[in-house]
Amino acid sequence: xxQNEPIRGNTHPAGRVSEIPDKLYFRIGEVARLCEVPAYVxxxxxxxxxxxxxxxxxxxQRLYRRRDVEMALRVKRxxxxxxxxxPGARQVFKSELKQKEPQLPLxxxxxxxxxxxxxxxxxxxxxxxxxxxxxxxxxxxxGIHPIQTPRRxxxxxxxxxxxxxxxxxxxxxxxx
Length: 176
Description:
Layout: E1 9-11, E2 17-19, E3 26-27, H1 28-35, H2 39-48, E4 55-56, E5 62-64, H3 66-81, H4 86-100, H5 114-132
Antiparallel strand pairs: 1-2, 3-5, 4-5
């Protein structure tokens, strides 16, 4: 049996194998019988192994799925048959998880065309400009920020050039 294969049964000292019945959910008593451990041991394993997480029904009763039963049998095998401590068994699960995770490519392994980056940057800047506009305001002309308003210069007292807005949304449009 391979290291990452799911356990379909548990070998008893007499050599027989207990098969997991083909059911959708199992109660804690059934799982305890299959694993040949008391129910309180299963509850303890749930607190020690985050991978063992049965659902709870409307009445609060634990409902184990097949993969939960397989995980409980795997925990029992690691602890009882292979002699791991609880932290050691946790480490086995962590190392298996790391082996399953895909490795990220090395930086620079798949070089990207600079033109693609420039295009992506322009698209992101356009999206940022759209998101920064107040709701209901029409898009401003290129190069003009839509939030700018006319202001008087202190030295000349003349107004700076007006930035065009939609008359329906511009309170100063009716005064001119």
